[in-house]
Structure formats: structure tokens, C-alpha cells
């Protein structure tokens, strides 16, 4: 079976590794860019995605490039705690949660593809716009997918919700546990920070978010430079006892602006030897740290389904799940606790229990884990998507 993958991002490269592990030898990845470079800033890999990369034999390499997240904590815009929970192994998972540099992860996956599939398996400067003579074309070419546009011509640019994200990295002092991921805000404006390197110095990945005046430029472009001074102006008084937000922003060498966009859920992904994966299939708001993780899961389920000769099973399993997640992220997912705290106590609070009771906060967190597929018990009990090569016809 001749398989072509459009896009050498995290989803496309994981698909190549997964297909190879399932016994498919004739797999090529085509990347439109002339060179694959480690672009971007930090992302999170949740335990369900780390499980899949572990089963692909990449656990040790992941541990070398990532910071194992110890906790996730939410605060209001004054730095007062709303909710916190352990993450990864500390939360009872069999697999860690990692914060990593997106580009470093991509290069790790690329290296593994070249090792296992050969140096000719990835072809740069090769843009795929639609099906050719392959048996299956997998569109893993991102939010501006040419393969998706072939299937759904005239869809137009991704819809924007009026918010802008600014992203950067800064060397700074460790905060809280030293491996904490924090989110502070009021449901409209927020600041996110977590370390992606620890040791002699801590490299903090940060995201600042607020409404943007005027029309958003370059929707879906992650690499548009931003003005650090302008970002800092909006967060000038966000100084907490445990984190100096304007100081972190000012300490970055550069930052990038990204309008918060997604794609509307599709009624169908697969047509006559063509299917979609990752952002090409279900681009979602960067809420809940799920974009890269869901692409990895897509890749594994697709290989699992193909190895059993049932491509339809891939979409049957993944499309309803990612549609629910896209819609949940439009409603702020687990981050809604910051909005609720602001609506109920806009001037701040002394006792969060009087604002959002523990049972309500716990259910918000648990509900999102169920929707996103990383409920601890269900993840541990689920059977593996690894495939015995001898079972592949």
C-alpha cells in the first residue's frame, strides 16, 4: 500500500512512525517548506499522547527534551488561587505529562522517521494539494491544509474569536514547584507560563492573551513578530508574590502574535483514498493543551485502523471525539474556572469555596479529561493501539 502524508509536522511525522510500526513500508512524508527547522515555542504533551509516543519507543528521548509537569494551577488576575491539581505521574497516570519546545519535538520525530523509514522518507519543498497515484493520501498539513481545501473548496480562512495570543520564552527564576504550569486571568485576559527547560537556568514558555482591536492579520500564522513593549503594557500590574508577569514578558528576546482561530467541525474527513489528520481535520483553540496531543492520537488510531483494513474505523473513532473537544474549547474548556471566578467575584476573593465550590471545580476538570480522552482510569484501562506486524496483510 502506497501512502503519502502531506505535512511533516508533529501529526504527520507521528503518522509515518505509526504506519511503519504497523507494518506499512511504502510511506513518504511531503513537506511544502524547503527546510524543516525547529520553529515555535512551548507545547504540552498530555499523558494519553505520551503513552502513544512511549509505545513507539520514544520514551527516553522525550524525557531528555521535556520537563515533566508536576501540577496545573489556575489563578484570578490578582494571582489568587482558584484550582490546582497534580499532573502526569503525580496524578496517578502511568505516563508523564511533558512541556517541550515544539520545534525540538518535531526534530526528534523527524530523526526517528529518518532512522526507521530511511533518508528518502521525508521530502521537503514538496507541496501536496490533492490526491495523486497513491493508495491513500493523509492530509496532515495544518490549519491552512491544501488537502482539506481540495475536499472542501471555498471554506475560506479560519474563523477568529477576537482574541490574540502573544507567545515567547524567557529565562527566569523557577516558580511554585519549579515544574508548574499556571494560568492566571479573568476569562477575557490571561497569562500562561510553564518551564520547558530546567537546570542551571529555567526557560519559561509564556502566553499572553487578550482581545485585539481591529481585524486580525495572518490568521493561522504562528510566526508573526510582536512588540514586547505593547504586550507588557497590557499586563503592567500583573505582579504576584510568586510571579512577575511584566518582568517575564520584558525578559524575552522576541515574541510572536497569533490570532485565536480554529476550524468549524467537519461532517466527514475521508473521501476515496483521502483522509485528514490533526489541525487539517480539527484545528481547535489552544485551550487545555490538546492540539499536538490530539494529532498524535489521530496518527496512532489511523495506523491501527489501516492495519485492520478498516479506514472507516479511524474516522468513526476520532471525528466525534475531536468535534466534542473543538466545541468544548470554544466554551473555554477547563479554563472556564477563571471566567466564573471573575463573574462571581470581579474584585477578588478571600475564600474560593464561597465563589466556586470544590465539587464544581473538580467536575469541570474531570469533565474535560473525559472529553479529551485522558481520564486517568479510562486511559489505563484502554487497550493498546500498537499493532503486531504479523497481523498486517
Automatic annotation (TrEMBL):
Keywords attached to this entry: Monooxygenase, Oxidoreductase
Sequence ranges assigned to domain FAD-binding in this UniProt record: 268-307
InterPro entries hit by this protein: FAD-bd, FAD-dep_Monooxygenase_BioMet, FAD/NAD-bd_sf
Domain of life assignment: Bacteria
SUPFAM superfamilies xrefs: FAD-linked reductases, C-terminal domain, FAD/NAD(P)-binding domain
Name assigned to this protein: Flavin-dependent oxidoreductase
Species in which this protein is naturally found: Microbispora maris
Amino acid at each position: 500500500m502506497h501512502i503519502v502524508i502531506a505535512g511533516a509536522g508533529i501529526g504527520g511525522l507521528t503518522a509515518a512512525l505509526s504506519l511503519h510500526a504497523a507494518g506499512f513500508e511504502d510511506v513518504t512524508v511531503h513537506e511544502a517548506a524547503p527546510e524543516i527547522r525547529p520553529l515555535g515555542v512551548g507545547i504540552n504533551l498530555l499523558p494519553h499522547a505520551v503513552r502513544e509516543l512511549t509505545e513507539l519507543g520514544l520514551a527516553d528521548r522525550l524525557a531528555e527534551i521535556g520537563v515533566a509537569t508536576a501540577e496545573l494551577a489556575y489563578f484570578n488576575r490578582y494571582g489568587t488561587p482558584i484550582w490546582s491539581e497534580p499532573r502526569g505521574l503525580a496524578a496517578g497516570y502511568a505516563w508523564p505529562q511533558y512541556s517541550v519546545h515544539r520545534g525540538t519535538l518535531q526534530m526528534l520525530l523527524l530523526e526517528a522517521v529518518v532512522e526507521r523509514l530511511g533518508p528518502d522518507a521525508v521530502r521537503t519543498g514538496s507541496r501536496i494539494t490533492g490526491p495523486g497515484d497513491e493508495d491513500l493520501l493523509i492530509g496532515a498539513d495544518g490549519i491552512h491544509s491544501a488537502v482539506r481545501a481540495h475536499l472542501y473548496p471555498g471554506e475560506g480562512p479560519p474563523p477568529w474569536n477576537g482574541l490574540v495570543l502573544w507567545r515567547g520564552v524567557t529565562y527566569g527564576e523557577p516558580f511554585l514547584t519549579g515544574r508548574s504550569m499556571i494560568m492566571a486571568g479573568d476569562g477575557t485576559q490571561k497569562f500562561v507560563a510553564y518551564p520547558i527547560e530546567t537546570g542551571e537556568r529555567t526557560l519559561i514558555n509564556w502566553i499572553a492573551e487578550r482581545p485585539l482591536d481591529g481585524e486580525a492579520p495572518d490568521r493561522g500564522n504562528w510566526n508573526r513578530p510582536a512588540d514586547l513593549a505593547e504586550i507588557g503594557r497590557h499586563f503592567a500590574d500583573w505582579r504576584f508574590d510568586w510571579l512577575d508577569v511584566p518582568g517575564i514578558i520584558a525578559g524575552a528576546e522576541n515574541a510572536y502574535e497569533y490570532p485565536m482561530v480554529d476550524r468549524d467541525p467537519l461532517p466527514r474527513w475521508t473521501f476515496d483514498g483521502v483522509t485528514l489528520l490533526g489541525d487539517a481535520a480539527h484545528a481547535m483553540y489552544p485551550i487545555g493543551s490538546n492540539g499536538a496531543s490530539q494529532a498524535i492520537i489521530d496518527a496512532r488510531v489511523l495506523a491501527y485502523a489501516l492495519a485492520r483494513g478498516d479506514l472507516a474505523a479511524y474516522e468513526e473513532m476520532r471525528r466525534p471525539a475531536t468535534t466534542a473537544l473543538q466545541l468544548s474549547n470554544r466554551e473555554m474548556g477547563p479554563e472556564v474556572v477563571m471566567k466564573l471566578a471573575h463573574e462571581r467575584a470581579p474584585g477578588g476573593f478571600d475564600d474560593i469555596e464561597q465563589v466556586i465550590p470544590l465539587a464544581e471545580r473538580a467536575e469541570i476538570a474531570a469533565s474535560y479529561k473525559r472529553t479529551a480522552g485522558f481520564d486517568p482510569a479510562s486511559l489505563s484501562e484502554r487497550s493498546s493501539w500498537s499493532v503486531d506486524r504479523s497481523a498486517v496483510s
